[in-house]
Task: structure prediction
Amino acid sequence: MKTPDILPTQQRENPEPHESPNPMPWFVIVLTALLLAFGVVYIAGTSLDEAPALGDGRTVAELQGAPPAPGGAVDGAAVYAARCAACHQATGAGLAGVFPPLAGSEWVMGKETTLAAAVLHGIHGPLTVKGATYNGEMPAFAGQLGDAELAAVLTHIRGQWGNGAAPVTAETVAAVRQETASRTTPFNGDAELAALK
Result:
C-alpha cells in the first residue's frame, strides 16, 4: 500500500486536540471544594431571626410584614414603599390618568378621618384629585395593615413631597376602623367620599 503524500497545507495544520487523563487541574478541584464547604458553613451558622449587621437592618419578621413589637415604632416610609409606591410612585406623583398623585392632593391634606377611611376600605370609581378625574381601583388595606402601620403610612404621606398636614395617630385609625366596621365594599369615589370631606 502506498503512503499518501502529505501536502504543504496539511503540514501547517495543528494536531487534533485530545483530553488528558486528568482534564481538570487538582488545585481547581480543591478550591471549588473549599468554597463549597465555606458556603455551607456560613449559611448554616447564620441566624435568620436577628437583624443583619449589613443591609437595611430589617428582621425576618419585619420583612414578612409582622406587626411591630408593642411600643415599637413603625416605619411609615417602609410601609409606603412596600404597599403604595407601585401605584403612587416613590415620588408621590402617581401616574397621569391612571393613579392619582399624593403630592399636593386635597384628599391627603384634608380630613385625616376621610383619608383613613379611604385607605381602610379602598376606592372604586371616579375620584377627582387636583382637578383631574381618575377612574380606577384602590385596594382596601383594613385586613392587611394594623392601626399603627396605617397611622405610620398616613403620617408619612401627609408629611412628604411638600405636604404639610398633621400626623395621624393609631387611635384615630382605630376609631375610623370601628366606625366603618360594617362597610364591606370600597367607597364609590367622589360620590361617597365628598360627603366625608
Observations:
- The mean pLDDT is 80.
- The longest helix spans residues 26-44.
- The chain has two domains: 25-66, 74-196.
